[in-house]
Amino acid sequence: MYVDVGERTCCVVGGGPIAEGRARTLAEHGARVRLVAPVLTPGLQTMLAQNAIHEYRQRRYEAHDVTGCTLVIAATDDPAVNLAVRDDARAAGALCNVADDPSACDFMVPALVRRGDLSFAVTTGGAAPAVTAGVRRRLEDVFGPEWGDLLELLSEFRPAMKRRYPDTAARSAAVRGLLDGDVLRLLAEGRRDAARAAVAAAAGEGS
Asked: Do residues 103 and 152 share a domain?
């Protein structure tokens, strides 16, 4: 399940490397990040300077910090504080992820591979982070940037494809034909004009 956090307030409690990673992911997806921690990593300090953090409360956590939040990340180095954050988040109607304690989480934060509008989420439910990282690396090798480029072209020609193939099954077959053809190879080789022509032809827009 993907959650749209765009313009939604999400609280990250903690100033260490895990908090930095979670805050970065939320910011990249358009969340309004509220950060609570007395001390920050250099990376979080940079995010703050770049206005990637919407609100910074430079102190220890207090229960009202999670008020009005959609998602909460508990990422301090104190398990008792993390569980208090989770309990407060649930009381406030928010879902909480507790770092390094899968059994205490309401949701998991997966490793992501993004290729434009195409994204893969990988998680082992906290059982084996090394496996998660390994699978992500393999996906990055198999699905290169050309997949994002292909989606851009398909989005561009989507109206034409719908006109040429009003039937959904026929339209899906046409897209599968592109996947089985040369278009991905052309994009991987940097031959975008040739790839665009192939997609245009499939959409009935070729010369």
From this structure: no
